[in-house]
């Protein structure tokens, strides 16, 4: 997928693009500040083998995505949350986020991760092997 097609998606109001393949024009896409997730970059032009279809399930990276599923991506990758599980998964994610904020505060106050996670017994067990 090229910058021109990515730009077209942005102009049309598409929230972001996930490509189960490569795209090109990486610097232009980066400068666009628009979320694009691809397996990599390749300077070769795109091959137009099929027509696009909408509102149908698609499989990307072995994961099937249905209309209405939540697709979230960042620099670490992309996750798909089925629409039926969205509320539960997001609640758990926010709980984890709040817990990690507590851990960061504990580290800033001088605690170690060994203390925070209670790794003392694990360390002793591994040292006694």
TrEMBL record:
Broadest EC class assigned to this enzyme: lyase
Catalytic activity: 4-hydroxy-4-methyl-2-oxoglutarate = 2 pyruvate; oxaloacetate + H(+) = pyruvate + CO2
Residue ranges crossing the lipid bilayer per the database entry: none
InterPro entries referenced in this protein's UniProt entry, alphabetically: RraA/RraA-like, RraA/RraA-like_sf
UniProt xrefs under Pfam families: RraA-like
Cofactor(s) needed: a divalent metal cation
Function text: Catalyzes the aldol cleavage of 4-hydroxy-4-methyl-2-oxoglutarate (HMG) into 2 molecules of pyruvate. Also contains a secondary oxaloacetate (OAA) decarboxylase activity due to the common pyruvate enolate transition state formed following C-C bond cleavage in the retro-aldol and decarboxylation reactions.
Protein name: Putative 4-hydroxy-4-methyl-2-oxoglutarate aldolase
């Amino acid at each position: 997928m090229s910058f021109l097609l990515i730009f077209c998606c942005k102009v049309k109001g598409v929230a972001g693009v996930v490509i189960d393949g490569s795209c090109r024009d990486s610097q232009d896409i980066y400068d666009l500040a628009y979320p694009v997730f691809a397996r990599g970059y390749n300077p070769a032009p795109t091959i137009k083998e099929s027509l696009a279809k909408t509102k149908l399930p698609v499989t990307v990276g072995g994961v099937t995505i249905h209309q209405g599923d939540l697709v979230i991506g960042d620099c670490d990758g992309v996750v798909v949350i089925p629409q039926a599980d969205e509320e539960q998964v997001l609640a758990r994610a926010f709980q984890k986020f709040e817990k990690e904020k507590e851990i960061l505060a504990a580290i800033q106050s001088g605690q170690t991760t060994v203390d925070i996670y209670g790794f003392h017994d694990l360390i002793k067990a591994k040292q006694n092997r």
